[in-house]
Amino acid sequence: MIALVVGAAIAVAAVLLVALPFLRARVPDWEQTTTADEERRLVLIEERDQALAALKELEFDHRTGKIGDEDYRALVGPLRRAAAEALRALDRPQDSPPPAANPPV
Amino acid sequence: MADLGRAALVVSFLLALYALVSGVAGARTRNARVSDSARNALVTCFGSTLVAAIVLAAALIRHDFTFEYVAAHTSRDLSPVYSLTAFWGGQQGSLLLWLLILTGYAALAVLVNRRLLRDLVVWVVPVVGGIATFFAFMLTFVSSPFDTQTRVLDGAGLVPSLQNPYMVAHPPMLYLGYVGLTIPFAFAAAALLSGRTDERWIVATRRWTLIAWTFLGFGQLLGAHWAYVEVGWGGYYAWDPVENAALMPWLAATAFLHSVMIQERKGMLKVWNMVLVALAFELSVFGTFLTRSGVVNSIHSFAKSSIGGWFLGFVVVTVVFSVTLILWRLPLLRARTKLESPLSREATFLYNNLLLVALCLTILWGVLFPVLTQLYEGQTRTIGRPYYDFFLRAFGLPLLLLMGIGPLIAWRRATARSLVRTLRWPIAASVVAGAALIGAGAGSSLPGLVAYTFCVFVVTTIVVELVRGTRATGSLFELVARNRRRYGGYVVHAAVVLLAIGITGSSAYQTDVERQLRPGQSATVDGYTLTYRGTRQDVSADASGRKLTSEALFTYTGRASGTLTSSLVQSSLLGPSHEVGIRTNWLRAEDLYVIFEQRGTGNGVYFQILVKPLVNLIWIAGYVFLFGSVVALWPDAREQRRLVARLALARA
User: Fold this and answer.
1) How do strand B545-558 and strand B590-599 relate by DSSP bridges?
2) Is B92 helix (H, G, I), strand (E, B) or coil?
3) Residue ranges per domain, chain A?
4) B113: helix, coil or strand?
5) In B, which residues are within 8 Å of A7 by CB distance?
6) Mean pLDDT split into 10-residue runs, chain B, 652 residues
7) Residue B17: which domain range?
8) Residues 256..285 of B with a Cβ closer than 8 Å to A: which?
9) Does the structure's ipTM exceed the value 0.85?
């Protein structure tokens, strides 16, 4: 008998919890999901962050001696250009075309 | 109470099915009410499964033999702790544990990530719901722990080898690992289903993989220690198919945890990472199939059953689902950059990945070979230890070397000259160590010598990296705080070095002899003189049958002195088993290990006597591994803030 009562209580509680979103007055919206345009901007922001992180990593590797002066000078230029391009891409309106040629990375 | 357990499982099944169906419907139609309802169903599914688990646990502790499962796996003389251990000692209980952990992880994952990762969570719910539906279906309709019978006076008892403290923790740890790999898989699948392949899925997947990987790794070491002290064959890892089933997903997850760093930094290896996440999950389900199906002969044969077909079908369905999903979304997974140089940190990570996956697939072939030969030739041909040992050396030694090179090589591009300059101290240390080891006689095993030398190389690179980093930042604390994941990873590398030293010492340099001894006779083994004093016999009877226990007493002198006992237990129902005698000599970092093999002629007894150097480093490695994993896992508020800021900026 106890098992039956507890089992029924579990079933009722489950149904209530599952039905809860339909019982609320406020319609939950999708404001917390990203639109396609926001997703595109997210990817550009990530590219910017990756380029800046790569620069920081290079600086740290240089300071800790993993990279010599010569290699550092050869690598830092392309990384800075990549970071600058990522920043420009982020500022560019969605409809404007990308530049004719990307600088080498 | 069995009715309550059954009812709770039926509710779990219906909720999981609802989470699957309404989750897909809600995500496809972007109906937030339906998606939220599906999410609530999945969270509630954990609640109802917990009720079922409590019912079974209570029945086990109360020795309620009206439950068939309780009668089959416990007995009145079993202590409450081991009675509870029987929860995962049998098939139905293990399946219930799978579902409990799965729904628990799922509830945690969807509640923690419901805001920042909402795009993904709406798809995570139906993916996990689908997997939970399978397990709830199995428990409700195929293999229920709540089948009842007429009460019997006593149960059959728990297999004696499972009545060990390690067995209290080892199986749940493995299950936390196996099942935990479902969550990263669900996030990866959700990223593909939703088309949201920005970094958020990577962060979620990486965190959950790290959690599952830690449990799986630590659980395996607990299992190895159990085998060492309980199974009584002198080793700790036998390349048993079920042991391999836990190792394979761990190797795949290890590869992912390395290659995901390349994706985070360079946007490369996106397809490869998806494949690794799916592979780790598939191998974890395959592992459960192996453990539960009985298709392979294993020391875990206590777990044999007839549910293998269902699991095989499930593996096939999930493989088809994963492959289709990845192929469908290939255009979203294109890399933005290319590997710049074969001499770079990215490249060493790639080599590391290839070696890990090669080792994983080699082991998989070894596991499948007997099944395939039985299928196609009608007779089982097994692959033995030499096969696995060969590939462990062939892939493991280069992996060890790469573990040393990786941290010190620069990202993007390094020259041979700069690499030699960076590695000069580790190279010098390993050359000196190699020469010293040859002088000390370690040249008797070339793989052993190479392994030890590489271990010195890796340890030196970690020290060099810490010293240089501390110099650059001014403080070790700040250095670690800047990048806990990296330095936690180095602690894990140190654990792998300890493991490698322990495995090498206890296998390549162990002494193993077999002697027939009569009372009063002695044997000298590697500096220990053991004298057999005689055997005491004891007859007893319990739920596992009539038992004849022969306990041999030894005194030993030499490198250390003392007494030890080793027993042979002959059970009328379970056959012979061994209680080994182990004495640890901490000063020499070695174990003296004695196995009572069998009775010989007259009053003689055959003993196997082993001296295992450095074996205890393996167990210590487990705790170092755990510590490093916790450091790497520690929540990083900056990462969370970065993700929130990115999202806010994208919406601005």
Assistant:
1) unpaired
2) helix
3) 37-93
4) coil
5) 3-4, 7-8, 11
6) 91 96 93 92 96 95 91 87 88 93 95 83 96 96 89 75 84 93 95 86 89 96 92 86 92 95 86 94 88 61 65 92 94 82 90 96 92 82 89 95 90 82 91 94 90 96 90 86 90 96 93 92 92 89 74 89 90 80 91 89 89 94 96 85 82 76
7) 1-158
8) 264-267
9) no
